[in-house]
Amino acid sequence: MDQADERKSSQQQELSQKQENAMVLLLQGLSDADVGQQVGVDRVTVFRWRHSEQFGREFRRLRRGVWQRSIERVQTMLEPALDVLQRHLSAADPRIALRAAAILVRLVSPPKAQATNEKRRAGGKSDYFDRLKAYIDAPMPGEPGHLEAMRRAAGVDDDDDMDEEDEDEEQDA
After folding, report:
1. 100 and 54 fall within a common domain
2. Structural domain range at position 152
3. pLDDT digits (tens, 9 = 90+) for 25-74
4. DSSP for residue 109
5. Does 66 lie in the same domain as 13?
6. Sign of the torsion formed by the C-alpha atoms of 161, 164, 166 and 167
7. CA Rg, the chain, in Å?
8. Are 128 and 114 in contact (CB under 8 A)?
9. What letter would DSSP give residue 30?
10. Dihedrals φ, ψ of 141, to 5°?
């Protein structure tokens, strides 16, 4: 192979500036069409780049790096978050301690079991995260709206959770 062939081969191995820019934009979550528009190529070109061996290999390498940095960042935030939760578990106000304990139990329970129970309750559709958010944001016990918020967080309709007194009152009416 002569020098011209070697240069051509090495140029084919290097990614162009447009391809490198495209990788950065793809890692930010932009679509092929948006990436193509920003780097000045058609979306089909971006699609072909993503499916080429060299581009794909480099993109996967960069994506692993992004994920690794994200994981490390979350890991550094975990210790302070657990410290806050631990302080709340030891709070003088038993309502705060109860809320912290409930959050902890819900967060560490197996996700598959949660999803299965949620799907069963929702007739196949899981709304676990919506209900968890409603629970976390709910008023504390004794505050106005607490009972209604807990029912919403538990996915219980007001009609489904009538106690015996309510049933007796309805029968008397």
Report:
1. no
2. 91-161
3. 999 999 999 999 999 999 999 999 999 999 999 999 999 999 999 999 98
4. S
5. yes
6. positive
7. 27
8. yes
9. -
10. -55, 135
Asked if 8 and 25 touch (Cβ cutoff 8 Å), the reply is no
Asked whether residue 143 is assigned to any structural domain, the reply reads yes
Specify the number of domains making up the chain: 2
Q: Show the tokens assigned to 67.
A: 């994920």
Torsion sign, CA atoms 88, 90, 94, 99 = positive
Q: Could you tell me which residues come within 8 angstroms of residue 62 by beta carbon, excluding any fewer than 6 positions away?
A: 23, 27
CA distances from 88 to 94, 117, 153 (A): 9, 28, 21
99 and 55 within one domain: no
For the chain, the maximum distance between any two Cα atoms, rounded to a whole number of angstroms, is 101
Could you tell me which residue, 74 or 12, shows the higher pLDDT?
Answer: 74
Contact 50, 26 (CB under 8 A): yes
Average pLDDT score over the chain? 76
Residue 146: closest CA among 95, 77, 74: 95
Q: Are residues 72 and 2 in the same domain?
A: yes
